[in-house]
């Protein structure tokens, strides 16, 4: 299979699973849109995890916002790529007819590969965030900075004192 066909097959498996679950929960409404959205999300997660690994390896804190070109340019490229490869003139329909004719064993084998890749992308993203959180904890930055931790401890102490005061009022121990 060519890379283009593999991409279409990846979309095919996502589309078929969405279509299958939609049958049981209210119809096949917008299945191609949903499958395209899943494809975009998976690609964004893959890029996000690469960015997280970059931040982890270089030991730099990277602050991003949607207005930064490093965010919106890849986003536009991903959405544009998916539009022109999947939605534009419905190229995927021609390939779906071909994939529907695949032998059951081959379809199962390729399906397992597709779902393994999806699980790998999700696991990779979660692991990259885990590494970043471990790094911030170790460096005591972000939510683990000493001043933030001290402030949270102070707020917790105040809340506990207020709770004790309320309980004493409830049980009448404040008048003793």
Automatic annotation (TrEMBL):
The keyword Transmembrane helix applies. It comes from the Bacteria. Keywords: Membrane, Transmembrane, Transmembrane helix. The chain crosses the membrane at residues 35-54, 66-86, 110-133. This is DUF4234 domain-containing protein.
């Amino acid at each position: 299979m060519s890379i283009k066909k593999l991409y279409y097959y990846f979309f095919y498996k996502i589309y078929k699973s969405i279509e299958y679950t939609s049958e049981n929960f209210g119809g096949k409404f917008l299945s191609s849109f949903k499958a395209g959205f899943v494809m975009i999300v998976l690609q964004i997660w893959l890029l996000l995890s690469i960015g997280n690994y970059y931040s982890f390896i270089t030991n730099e804190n990277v602050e991003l916002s949607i207005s930064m070109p490093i965010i919106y340019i890849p986003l536009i490229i991903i959405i544009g790529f998916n539009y022109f490869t999947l939605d534009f003139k419905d190229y995927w329909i021609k390939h779906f007819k071909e994939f529907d004719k695949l032998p059951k064993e081959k379809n199962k084998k390729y399906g397992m590969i597709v779902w393994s890749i999806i699980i790998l992308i999700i696991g990779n993203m979660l692991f990259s965030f885990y590494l970043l959180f471990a790094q911030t904890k170790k460096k005591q930055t972000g939510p683990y900075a000493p001043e933030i931790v001290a402030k949270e401890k102070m707020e917790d102490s105040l809340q506990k004192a207020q709770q004790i005061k309320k309980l004493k009022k409830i049980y009448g121990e404040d008048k003793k």
